[in-house]
Design a protein that fits this description.
Aspartate Aminotransferase, domain 2, binds pyridoxal-5'-phosphate, 12 helices, alpha/beta, Aspartate Aminotransferase, domain 1, four-stranded antiparallel beta sheet
Length: 404
């Protein structure tokens, strides 16, 4: 690098890859025949939505799968399908994003927040304590920013407390814990195919489960009318016998156009996940040993997908953190800070969801006060990632050189 030129990054942190050509061709085929509604099929035709469900079930090893309108819809649908009633307490991560407590509130239930650890996962001791204190029987577990907690211990705690686990895998599609795909530990796994997630259909969601009753209810809820037999990754028609009379239609289907562009992306998902991790590891290596900066440990048992990067500026004051964020921005590196008092763009925190009862979570407050978050879109090259790390190292390290 020419040392007289300032090192400025010019990439765009919100720019995804284009939709692959075979997915575009599949979308055009659906538009040419015009049957976009998933239950609108020609003689002998299997809808793209039904094929996507079959393929996603196979990819995750789930017995059943349902494609829906969004990740948030999948979460709400799962809560209804497991029988969460209005007024019921539902455990969830204090460190997550707005659609998670939003889905709980949307069914009239009450979010009960659980502390986050310094490794950015749910605090399992606090989880056990909150379950005991509130009597909550459902946990909506958010694998926030792709960090997976000790799932063996989490499931043991939840089994002992009689807590049903729904997994929010918006950031862990393609990830696994001890070889078990994320979304397959709990009773239901929920995924998002919104533009910023691991597959891109603009909006979209998926649910997986091995439980016939829960999935039959989810399918009825999603707006199947009496056409559930057109699903393939679904329980047999007998499972719907009673449910079809008692389950409301809370319309939120996926259409064939989105399903058509997701199927080719699903085939590429393992390669995409590997590409994300290559980028993640370059940033991680570039930041290792930076004074004042704490990297997040990634356990051996966790097969993560590094589609975003987090680090902590532990113990820094708010002004010093804001200064780093501002100076990185000048050099083209867009950081998000989870410690800000006001919700900004996609970033908000548990105390900004004021429809939920107020809770005090000192450990979460302390972790979020120094938590920095950054997207790593696949449009960045490995060189881009090295440059980003160099800039951050420089700007974070500056505080120690100058003693600000
Ligand atoms: C994106 C997201 C969701 C919801 O997905 P949408 O498809 O946008 O509704 C849920 N949880 C987390 C953590 C997310 O980031």
């Amino acid at each position: 690098m020419d040392s007289t030129q300032p090192d400025i990054f010019t990439g765009t942190f919100t720019q995804q890859e284009p939709i692959p050509e075979d997915a575009i061709a599949a979308a055009v085929a659906v538009m040419r025949h015009g049957r976009l509604h998933r239950y609108n099929v020609g003689p002998g035709e299997v809808a793209e939505a039904a094929l996507l469900e079959e393929e996603f079930a196979a990819a995750t090893g789930a017995r059943y799968c349902l494609a829906v309108a969004s990740g948030g819809y999948a979460l709400g649908c799962a809560l209804r399908a497991v029988g969460v009633q209005p007024g019921a307490p539902v455990l969830t991560n204090a460190f997550t994003l707005a659609p998670v407590p939003g889905a709980i509130a949307a069914v009239g239930a009450v979010p009960v927040f659980v502390e986050v650890t310094e490794d950015l996962v749910i605090d399992l001791d606090h989880l056990a304590a909150q379950a005991a204190a509130t009597g909550a029987k459902v946990l909506m577990l958010s694998h926030m920013r792709g960090h997976i907690c000790d799932m063996d211990r989490l499931m043991a705690i939840c089994r002992a407390a009689g807590v049903t686990v729904i997994e929010d895998c918006a950031h862990t599609m393609g990830a696994a814990w001890r070889g078990v795909p994320s979304g397959r530990h709990g009773l239901v796994g929920c995924y998002s195919t919104q533009t910023y997630k691991h597959m891109n259909s603009g909006e979209g969601g998926l649910l997986v489960s091995d439980d016939a009753q829960v999935m039959a209810r989810a399918i009825m809820l999603s707006g199947s009318y009496m056409l559930y037999a057109r699903h393939r990754a679904a329980p047999p028609p007998e499972a719907f016998e009673t449910l079809r009379w008692t389950t409301p239609n809370v319309s939120g289907r996926m259409d064939n156009l989105r399903a058509a562009i997701l199927r080719p992306q699903l085939r590429r998902l393992p390669a995409q996940c590997a590409a994300w991790n290559d980028r993640y590891r370059v940033v991680e290596a570039g930041l290792a040993g930076t004074p004042g900066l704490t990297l997040i440990a990634r356990p051996e048992a966790e097969r993560f997908v590094g589609s975003s990067f987090q680090f902590r500026l532990a113990g820094w004051g708010a002004a010093a953190v804001q200064d780093v964020v501002a100076r990185a921005a000048v050099r083209g590196v867009e950081l998000k800070w989870f410690g800000a008092a006001e919700p900004v763009a996609f970033t908000s925190r548990y105390d900004s969801w004021r429809y939920a009862p107020a809770q005090t979570l000192p450990q979460t407050d302390r972790v979020l006060a120094g938590l920095i978050d950054m997207r790593l879109p696949l449009t960045f090259s490995l060189d881009d990632c090295a440059q980003i790390a160099r800039i951050l190292r420089d700007e974070v390290g500056r505080r120690f050189q100058t003693g600000v």
